[in-house]
Amino acid sequence: MNILKHILPISQQLSKCLATVNTQQVFATLQRHAAPSAVRAISTTAPRHDLMQFFDDKKNWGEQEVKHGRGWTKDDLRIKSNSDLHQLWFVLLKERNMLLTMEHECKDKMELFPSPERLDKVKESMENLEEVVRERNRAYYELETGETGERPGKVVPNELGIRFYYRAFEHVIPKYANRKWNERHKFTFGGSAVWKFLRLYRERLYNEKRKLRNRERNEVVHLLRRFPNIDRETLAQRFPTVDVEKLYKLDKIRMNHSVKSGSSSSSTPG
User: Fold this and answer.
1) For 166, phi and psi rounded to 5 degrees?
2) DSSP-derived 3-state class of residue 153
3) Which of residues 87, 121, 150 is at a domain's end?
4) Does residue 246 belong to any structural domain of this protein?
5) What is the mean pLDDT of residues 65-80?
């Protein structure tokens, strides 16, 4: 009610002078008559920028590369306050909109978009910011209510038997009476055709994993035969699914190492 007492006389004055005043004059009128809380709720953009905020700086137009920094990591964002994260989100949002506009403009004019990795860094920063805010929300709800506060969900199968994570959300109509929801969401499967599909699908996934594992193993064997003195710990970190020590003990790798060492010793003068 107190806010209405401040706003009603202001609205009467604005209705009389809107035809003759611009945005800056209206904002000045609000500053003189309205409460400070009402003024802070209104935000305007400087007229000199208009739609140019959707485009990059003119000095970067036509450049092959634009200098930029790294993205925001989770460790950088965890030391920021909530208000700083709120402001940073809109800064990143404006930056993403600008980059998407420039990318579309470059594609339309068949030109090279300078430093396209900027868009990836902005998206990564926004994802990290969302994760940090979600961490704080979980910590708050666990402290106050003992729950995470996240939307509940569970892993369920679809009509083809493929399992996925379903996030629950509220409905006005109960589940037993919601005919459209029950027709769209069926978490059961059956039938010979579905079981055949699942068997072939699992076989395909297994073959893909087996081929990937064999490719990594062959690559490790090739590296060990070509570079016998390679650091095996680094190689194990690079290929965690391969037992490097077991491959290093193979006869063909040890024979290759002995042949190279013997040839190097025979080449040295006596």
Assistant:
1) -105, 125
2) strand
3) 150
4) yes
5) 85
